Amino acid sequence: IAHIYCKDVFGIVGENFTFPVQVDQKVVETTWKKNKDRVAEWEWQNKPTYFGPLYNRSVLMENGSLTIINLEQDDAGAYEFQYWDSVKDHYLNFVLVVLDSLPEPKISCNSSSGKLLLNCTADFQGSLNYTWKLSNDPHSYQNQELSIPLENVDTTMKATCIIKFSQTERSSEISLIQCLP
After folding, report:
1. pLDDT for the residue 3
2. According to CATH, what is the number of the domain 6-99?
């Protein structure tokens, strides 16, 4: 009986992407396949061998993890990681989804009920982490929206919205004086 494991994973065009492989045993042999075609293999005491489109763009580690350098849209697909621990074969399956690069976030603002409301948006297929930083405040705020009492707004303040997905981040900045009534 083989244990089959399947996980959807996400990367961004241009990033380096490593499959999240965790193997407890000593790996004797590994093979990576994409859509049933071999892309990398490693046999104990030999160097890794690479095939096809990943030939000059991937790194296979002794623990079995595979990193694709400079991810491309064509790298998307079903990957199978097979390893042998000298007792039996194990299989891990991944579906790699490759997303477009991150857009620059857009900041909108308005004031109501004595507060300045800032909203950060980005048109992106994945779920983003949003962080706000204010020029006069050492704290950061983990939220898509930020509310600041008007009495705390200084005309020289700037607000920066940072979006993050995987290892990539993009940011935009606004001067709060633009938002004041």
Report:
1. 55
2. 2.60.40.10
